[in-house]
Amino acid sequence: MSPRSYRSDVRVLAASETRRRILEAARTLLSTDGPVSFTVDAIADQAGVARMTVYNRFGSKVGLVDAISDDLALRGGIQRLPEAFRTRDALAGLEILVSVFVGLWESERLLIQRLRALATLDPELAREDRNQRRRQALLVLLQRLAGQRGTPRPADLDDLADLLLILTSFEAYESLSAGGRSASAVTRLLTEMINEILHRRWSTEPSFGAGIPPAEAT
Description:
This is TetR/AcrR family transcriptional regulator. Residues 16-76 form the HTH tetR-type domain. Pfam families: TetR_N (PF00440). GO terms for molecular function: DNA-binding transcription factor activity; transcription cis-regulatory region binding. There is one protein chain. This protein is mostly helical. Helices cover 70% and strands 0% of the residues. 24% of the residues are buried.
């Protein structure tokens, strides 16, 4: 290895470590009890770096929040999502999608709550593209379902995608879990609700989430 190549590798590793420290600092601030001081200065101080280093790594506060959201998603198991599309049966794929997102909301609940609160105070941080990606995933599975079962009708797909977007949202998870339901109980309840919505138009097909016992509070 040439000295130049070695120095380049060292710089890449150092930059990666700095990025990790900044993300961990942001997580720490978001997890702190009491009021959250989520400013670039506070994050830089917590990470032990200069304020400009945060901007150099993430471009802006919005870029930092996007990186935090990506990190939360990876830690929360979003990498399981491709399973929903590899599964031959679209109904089973929808069940996996519900499980993936409930698991994500459960695993990072406090941090997601804090990020959403910050987005409420600072509209610049509110990003709809993640919701739109989830909606697109739902729409793809609904289209596959229509091809496999002959229903739902094409005219119903957008309405169903919007409805399932609400049912798989963090807000729906939070409302359903507030009564003491575990993540598995919320998943079961949501699959039952989606089953009722999707199967009104036919009665002879196997049920979405068939064999899953009724949700119970834990």
